[in-house]
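Why do we bother with a discrete structure alphabet at all? Because it lets us treat a fold like text: something you can write down, compare, and reason about line by line. To make this less abstract, here is a complete entry for Transport permease protein. Read it the way you would read a sentence in a foreign language you are learning: slowly, and without expecting to understand everything at once.
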Amino acid sequence: MRIHEVTIQAGRPERYYWRDLWQSRELLYILSVRDISVRYKQTALGASWSLIRPLATMLVMAFVFSVVAKLRPDPGVPYSLMVLAGITIWTFFSNAFTQISSSITSNANLVTKVYFPRLLMPLSAVAVSLVDFLIALFLFVVIAIVYKFVPDWHILLMPLFVALALLAAFAFGLFFAVINVRFRDVAQLIPFLVQVGFYACPIAYSSAQVSGTWYEKYYIMNPMVGIIDGFRWSLLGGRTHLNPQSLVYSVAISLVCLLLSVIFFRKRESTFVDDI
């Protein structure tokens, strides 16, 4: 184990904070492993829940929206695969967003007892979401094999959309993590935002149904629209709808929000102990 010295001093230059953050990467690993091990501790099905949840959601949505509501997927794409691709990336984003938002308050015992760069806690919260995502992605592969659907070169771009989803989750989650320390009402607000976002994003339907409407210009300002469409487009061989302009909005909004959230986090970080 590496040992390094951390100097706690008021008014230190910002570069020392980021140096301390890098030097604490082993602590980041420890916190991440702890979160993953605690996630399914004393559960009967363990990591199988990461398969059961998206599979059950896909089956219900396929029946409700395809059979009952008669929604149609993009041409040449099975509806179940289109929905499952959307569920996979949305679940990754929403889980990461939720866990990042509560990362400071859920680690209150650490915050009040020892010093370390508090940004480690939101960073470590992402690990569980990433493991769940990989398991859900395996489910998608299995269902794709059942449908005899073979991806092409577009799948090489999938990591870019996963990284963009992670960027968006961190950008928005970091802001709410700070607010949640002071106002615990945020813990009640987050599930509501996730629930509303599920229906506001193209998961059960294709964005092609919005194309050409008067509200499309507002619809594509939702940063998750471009991310979900892009992820689906990469998994399904470029056969689904993807508006390049929505990707521009996704990248721009996520980067701006991330910058503002980091600034806000650093400004309020010294007050966490008092507020908790």
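What the structure line is telling us, in plain words: The two ends are 31 Å apart (CA to CA). DSSP finds 13 helices and no strands in the chain.
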